Amino acid sequence: MQTRGVIYIHSSPPAVCPHVEWAIGRVLGSATVRLGWSPQEAERGTMRAERAWTAEPGVGAEIAKALAQWPMLRFEVTEDPSPGLDGERIMHVPGRGVYRAATSAGGGIMIAEDRIRALLATTTSAEALRSGLDQLLGLDWDRELAPYRQAAGGEEQSWLSQVS
Q1: pTM of the prediction?
Q2: How far apart are CA 130 and CA 90, in angstroms?
Q3: By CB distance 3.0 to 4.6 Å, which of 1, 4, 26, 106 could disulfide with 54?
């Protein structure tokens, strides 16, 4: 069974770009991965890339783990749902770390019932509830990544595939 997703490298120092490609290639079992880097307008002197991928379910988390070894990267990795498995969205922001959430078939973040119950049991005000929900939804990561998510402007989209 295969699933698919997208790797978004929102910002990377140019010197790290070849290492990012190598790390993704290692996870996918491919000797050569080329992401097609372009300048990141939101942060001068950094590069951005995005690439779709196909592989076994769970590979999105492996890709994110490989990318997280460079704490200066801003990235997102998505994995589409597959039979019996939720999708995933993993975001990383320097200084904030990794946010990971299950996603629905439409790409929306899903919050588990037990996490909502725990939040309701521990909050004492509407503001605390709002703040807790924002944290569960990864709002701080979304806000920090928003300026970096601009469209690639006509870049070629190709697929990376896991080698069997």
Answers
A1: 0.88
A2: 22
A3: 4
